[in-house]
């Protein structure tokens, strides 16, 4: 054994980080997938959500003016909810409310006059444009 080869060196360990790179890419892919799912669910949830402004507007537009007293109360309440953001609608609503007072706090109310109905229809038209 004296003739043993001394010029061959033992195997060297090569650092291998491919396992950690693979785990990092998998984690990144999972995070991107979760973010994409979150975005899609949020987008569809907003579309599914009921717009209360539209519901209030449909009720406001379809008021039955045969029962003037109840309709005056409804118009006052729904008009207040619908005109919170629109300045022009708020101004017309503030003109309509004193007209509706004549039909509210009485036992017997007269039929709806033409001027109040015109003001109501104008408010409906302006709110319809803003929604």
TrEMBL record:
Keywords: Membrane, Transmembrane, Transmembrane helix. The keyword Membrane applies. It comes from the Bacteria. The chain crosses the membrane at residues 20-41. This is DUF4381 domain-containing protein. It comes from uncultured Sulfurovum sp.
């Amino acid at each position: 054994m004296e003739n043993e080869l001394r010029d061959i060196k033992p195997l060297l360990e090569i650092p291998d980080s491919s396992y950690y790179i693979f785990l990092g890419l998998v984690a990144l892919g999972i995070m991107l997938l979760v973010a994409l799912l979150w975005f899609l669910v949020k987008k569809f949830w907003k579309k599914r959500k009921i717009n209360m402004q539209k519901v209030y507007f449909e009720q406001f537009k379809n008021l039955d003016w045969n029962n003037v007293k109840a309709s005056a109360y409804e118009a006052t309440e729904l008009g207040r909810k619908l005109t919170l953001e629109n300045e022009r609608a708020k101004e017309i609503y503030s003109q309509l409310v004193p007209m509706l007072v004549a039909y509210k706090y009485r036992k017997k109310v007269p039929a709806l006059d033409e001027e109040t109905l015109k003001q109501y229809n104008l408010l409906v038209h302006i709110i319809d444009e803003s929604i």
